[in-house]
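does this look right to u?? zinc ion version
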Amino acid sequence: RKIPLIAPSILSADFMRLGEEVTAIDRDGADWIHVDVMDGHFVPNMTFGPSMVAALRRQTDKPLDVHLMIAPADPYLESFAQAGANHIYVHCEGNPHVHRSLQTIRKSGAIPGIAICPGTPPEALTYLMEELDLILVMTVNPGFGGQKFIDAQIGKIEILRAMADATGRDIRIGVDGGIDPTTAPRVVKAGADMLVAGTAVYGQPDYRKAISDLRDAGMR
Ligand code: DX5
Ligand code: ZN
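got this back:
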């Protein structure tokens, strides 16, 4: 098993002190910075747009892992890439032409990924595998931090890991929602190699310890 990458989600940060909150996880060992973009339409919550990604870009050199919970996503892909997003995920639900979206993301200079909701079967990704480098398995219904991990998603991670390995390419599988030191070892055993964590990092007093606890738990 690989050492899982840790991507704290700034959704759970103190927005009034966002610059410091990003610098803190950067310094305290975050591998990637996870940015949850919500439109109040695809998900029942709203957050940031491309100008926030540009501001984050000025604050850190760590890869910006941009999770687009927006529909349609296509009109905004280039803007997010130009703002400095390193990785861009589109949801396979709510976007009719994600195969093309993945190509657009790559052409824009970012690394393309698909995010998949808890209710969507893994087979939704069968004909997208050649176009993607990243998969983000939602282990909660997207929209909010601090929700409970959905156990039934473990089987989906195993299936997606087998599908990813069958391509012969290096596809990273991230897991997003309810990840903490208890759920981390379970998802990594199932085949995940990137962990998004909002509450389990920003809800803790010591970010460095929280990040290393997650990484250690993932290797257990
Ligand atoms: C949920 C977001 C997640 C969220 C995870 O819609 O995609 O990235 O920040 O938060 P926790 O880790 O608290 O479940
Ligand atoms: Zn997310």
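The chain has a mean pLDDT of 98. idk if thats expected tbh
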